[in-house]
Amino acid sequence: MTARRTAARDRWVTLGVFMALAAAWQALSLVFTAEAQPGEPMVPGWQVLFSRTLLSMSDYFQGGFGIRPISEGGVRSYPAAVLSLLGNSADTLLRLAVGWLAGALAGTLLGLAVSWSAWSRRLVELPAQFLRTLPLLAMVPLFQLWFGSYFIGKVAFVAYGVGVLFFAGVVNAVGNVPQIHIDNARTLGAGQWRLYGSVVLPAILPELRATMLLSLGAAWAAVLGAEYLGAQSGLGYIIVFAQQFAFLDRMFLVALLIVVYTSLSFWAFDRLSAWATRWAPAAG
Amino acid sequence: MRRGAAGRFAAAVDPLRLAGPVLLAAAWWAMARALPPSLLPPPLAVLRRVAADFLAAPELTYYGLDNASLLGSLLYTVQNVVLAVALGTALGVVGGLLAARIALLRAVIDPMMLTAGTIPILIAAPFLLIWFGVGRGSAVALVVFNVAVVLYLFARRAAANLDPIHEAAARMLGATPAGAVRDVLLPGTVPEILGGLRIALAGAWGLEAIAELLGAQQGIGKVIEVLAGATDVEGIMAALLLLGAVAVVADALAAAAIRRLAPWTTPARLAAA
Amino acid sequence: MIALDHVSRRFRRADGQIVQALDDVSVTIAPGEFVCLVGPSGCGKSTLLQLVAGLLEPSGGSVNVAGQVVRGPAPERGMVFQRDSVFPWLRVIDNVQYGPRCRGMKRAARLALAQQYLERVGLAHVARAWPRELSGGMLKRVAVAMVFANGAEVLLLDEPFGALDYVTRHQLHDVLLDLWEESRARTGRRTVLFVTHDVDECLVLADRILVFRAGRLVDDFPVAAPRPRTADSLLLADMVAHRHRLLAHLGLERAAPRAIAGAAAQ
Lengths: 284, 273, 266
Ligand SMILES: Nc1ncnc2c1ncn2[C@@H]1O[C@H](COP(=O)(O)OP(=O)(O)OP(=O)(O)O)[C@@H](O)[C@H]1O
Ligand SMILES: [Mg+2]
Fold this sequence. Notes:
Chain A has a single domain (77-276), classed as MetI-like (MetI-like fold). Helices cover 74% and strands 2% of the residues of chain A. Chain A has ten helices and two strands, in the order αββααααααααα. Chain A has a two-stranded antiparallel ribbon with strand order 1-2. The radius of gyration of chain A is 24 Å and the shape is globular. The mean pLDDT of chain A is 85. In chain C, strands 6-7-8-3-9-10 form a six-stranded mixed β-sheet, sandwiched between helices. In chain C, α4 (107-120) packs across α5 (136-149). At the A-B interface, α1, α4, α5, α8 and α9 of A face α2, α6, α7, α10 and α11 of B. The structure holds adenosine-5'-triphosphate (ATP) and magnesium ion.
């Protein structure tokens, strides 16, 4: 069987598996009908998820577009529910994106600066390793005490988690750049700055690809962790808030949304980094 | 830019490398001087706090913790992680190796595992809290879940990457199917599986801690939670430092185990680092 | 002029052993000279080239080029490395225009230049390819084009044609000789240091041959045959004598020891 036909078959199988899972969930909802509260089933079927559960998302609406939030006497409605999901998603995604970008930028720049000379690299090796091993998720409360439970606190937390990974990844990758490429560039007339721009940076990209994907996972975990433990909005906030009342259906709906977002973000990252390292022999 | 080609021993006693942690502590100390101690206590104060609360921490009893010492809380957390990593490893490795050899199983499990590998496992924590309650169960389940997914992916890839010629050679030399698994599949995949174990272990500490933060009666995460309620930064940093030290030691042990168990494939770069 | 004055270079291997790669080498090379370096594997040829390039520092003695002590690499001294040095993240044409870009040449000019040198090494058709898509010999030619396009006054070539087939290798000899003879403002010709293991290649190309053994310069003699040289030039009586002398140095022939001793004493 050719590789392409295998890939096509795998796609069908994947689709089939997810359809089967969805059907199994529906079957389970018919068998297991317990309710956490009247109208809040423990195993919500799809028809419930996309009607009552979706509607209940209005509860987390902050207001806007001429629609009043529940807290100010508004009523549940689909527009409010959809706007609520969009608004909370935007909050989470903004925290994620700003935090990731800041962390990646700071970590990369610091890593490159430290790699400028061999002795500074040796100096930071152990501290970087230690900071990387320090369990990130356990540090949520510390960041909240430092920065408060506002936007900046979550961004700082995500940026820290991502930055530490990038810093360690960059320092390690620079150490692995083949000496011959550096020598070659220098004999062709490249100065130290150009050496960094045209040799070190592209040469570390393939190794950094793993760091990028790893850091994206860390960023998602960080933003969720931060929202679990203190936020007034965001998808993670909805999940823990719903958990306190055992609203499994709401948790499930938001979790599904997060799965879609993470899958999309990983897919986009993968494509982007594959393009940036398309010169590498095994771009797989 | 030349990477120092000194051996392991030379690297271990390299004074510049050893100066690194001192520098980190010095930077911390300098920052602590500029900030109020309620925000960032100096390193020595945190170390003193670790020592003071290690065996008995009366103020934790006051906050309602059963196990009122850092050591006791740490032991609880370590127990959970060890239990969960062992369970998750068994599940993940068996699943991954089976899936690598049985096409039907692979077709069914792979899509789920690949998706589970990208989503933040943390998403499952609130669900587990509802299903398993606030006891040991939900935290352990969360870590088991994560470890199993990571090790499934590593084991499956390792088995797929294994050149089938080795297995064919073993069979040709008279090995039974079970013998081929024992003599070829296991040793051939062990290095990558152990690498995955190290990654899973590194993630396990944070997951266990945040599961305890979200809802538990004991553990270092619970300690951090009550101290956060009391805005006790010094106490939090003491707990974090201890947990970090345990994570570092566990990682070093795992790395040493890899060198012992799979000496034939230790990459040169690892050996020289 | 390149002047090595009592140059030695030691390496410390990872296992702690000290290697004396070059041992008290003194030699002066005139501007425009085409010098071939031969000697058994591991005798220090690459080390010498790297010292002149400024990629290594001598452990003792000094290296001067054009009256200046060498303090680091510079684009006036181009080097073709023994190992693959082409940047895998640049397309072939971008590799070749890398040096001119470092010098700040305008885009159109450096593209034309790169294209011209790719044609000269016979690779115009793969200008937009990635290096991973080329064969070993093609990669080597890209590396050669990279350095040639940069127009250095001193060319340091470390077995540049070692991996090439017979035909391509002879074509590249012509390219190299053209480049060498291109008139330079300061020196007339370029200066070439060429490392090779191929005795015939060395005789066809060189003005002068340096023979190394275990880090020491053991022989140094001129090749006076007229240019352009062809395969027939190798049949000249002088050339035959040179050839025997080289083969003896490489341990392939039990040559008349007196001939060598006499030549070395000159
Ligand atoms: N970076 C290094 N570290 C340790 N030893 C080295 C290093 N570079 C070269 N050497 C040693 O120096 C000696 C000379 O090496 P060099 O590369 O100059 O040989 P060569 O004459 O170019 O050989 P070949 O013809 O095989 O290319 C060798 O014994 C080699 O092992
Ligand atoms: Mg050499």
